[in-house]
Amino acid sequence: MFKVSARAFPRRSPIFSSKCFASTLTLIETNGSKISPASLSTLNAASKLNQPITCLVLGSDAKKISESEFKNLELSSSNLKISKILYNENSNFDHLLAENISNILTNLINDSKNDITHFFANSSSIGKNIIPRVAALLDVQPISDIINIKDSKTFIRPIYAGNAIATVESSDKLILSTIRSSAFSQISSDSSINNSIVIEELPINDSDITSNNDNKITWVSESLTKSERPDLSSAKVVVSGGRGLKSKENFDKLIDPLAKALNAAVGASRAAVDAGFVDNSLQVGQTGKVIAPDLYFAIGISGAIQHLAGMKDSKTIVAINKLEDEPIYKIADYGLVGDLFEILPELTEKISALKK
């Protein structure tokens, strides 16, 4: 199905192509009554195909979100062509369980009048759950974790924990993909008004939902970590701590004040999470969150390959570690070798003073 070639970290500009009458279906995730930042990045990725985009919004607030949020999208990209928004307010869709919506997506994609050639979702737990199930129903090979788009059939994705980059070409008529949101900037949602988007309710039969899971899957609960700090997945500045901090008390005492001074999100290496310094929701890396903030502080972090896979695309990387031969310094833009227990209090004090 694919032709694959691999090379180490290419820096190439995408080459766009378009197809008459083709359209891209994008699944929109939401945070309360807002479009999630990751979905704004997915829309930007969809715009690279230079073809009409149909957005699918599902859940109790779907109509409200469709009528308010999309009208405020700033069309900062001339290729962003949102032509239609489909919504359904069935509460069974509130958590976007794959078992509940896979049939809906399959029917929508199979409907020839929509002429859908691409289906994009975030590389979130939701997208990673939905795409394989829909791909199995449609007998199509999915392409996961796209970080760049060359044309409508050719995509770039990381392999081997980001140590190599694969260029993947698909011969399928339908492309199902998850998008790594950190690789694409967000479409702004705070400016100009777009009144040309068609908003329609998507008719759905209850049988399409229940027949998909035969009532075997139900949503029980979720537990979210609340913080005054910005969200790690979308923050522009991130301060991460590692095993070098030695204890949870030190982590809280040194990392949190610096993050507060910078109005930054807090992250951590897997070693710090495994040691119980912070909750695993703050883990950055191959088995945690993959982020690309404007500024990333790696404090007491050695730079294991699994951690680098989650933050190496940050615009500016600052490393603080007492050992000068740590791998983190190979990708850092600025490195400070020294005792972090002496450096961080002074750094925090000076940053706080500059803000006064």
How would you sum up this structure, described in words?
- InterPro entries: DHS-like_NAD/FAD-binding_dom, ETF_a/b_N, ETF_a/FixB, ETF_alpha_N, ETF_asu_C, Rossmann-like_a/b/a_fold.
- Heterodimer of an alpha and a beta subunit.
- One of its GO terms (cellular component) is mitochondrial matrix.
- It comes from Ascoidea rubescens DSM 1968.
- The protein has 356 residues and is an alpha/beta fold.
- It has 2 domains: 2-213, HUPs (Rossmann fold, 3-Layer(aba) Sandwich), CATH 3.40.50.620; 237-355, Rossmann fold (3-Layer(aba) Sandwich).
- The chain is built from 9 helices and 18 strands.
- Helix 2 (62-68) links the parallel strand 5 and strand 6.
- Helix 3 (98-110) crosses helix 4 (125-138) and helix 3 crosses helix 5.
- The radius of gyration is 22 Å and the shape is elongated.
- 42% of the residues are buried.
Q: What is the CATH third-level topology name of the largest domain?
A: Rossmann fold
Radius of gyration: 22 Å
CATH architecture of the largest domain: 3-Layer(aba) Sandwich
Strand tally is 18
The structure class reads alpha/beta
Strand order of the largest sheet: 8-12-7-2-5-6-13
At a glance:
With 356 residues, this protein is an alpha/beta fold.
List keywords for this structure.
Rossmann fold; Probable electron transfer flavoprotein subunit alpha; 2 domains; flavoprotein; 356 residues; mitochondrion; 9 helices; electron transport; seven-stranded parallel β-sheet; alpha/beta
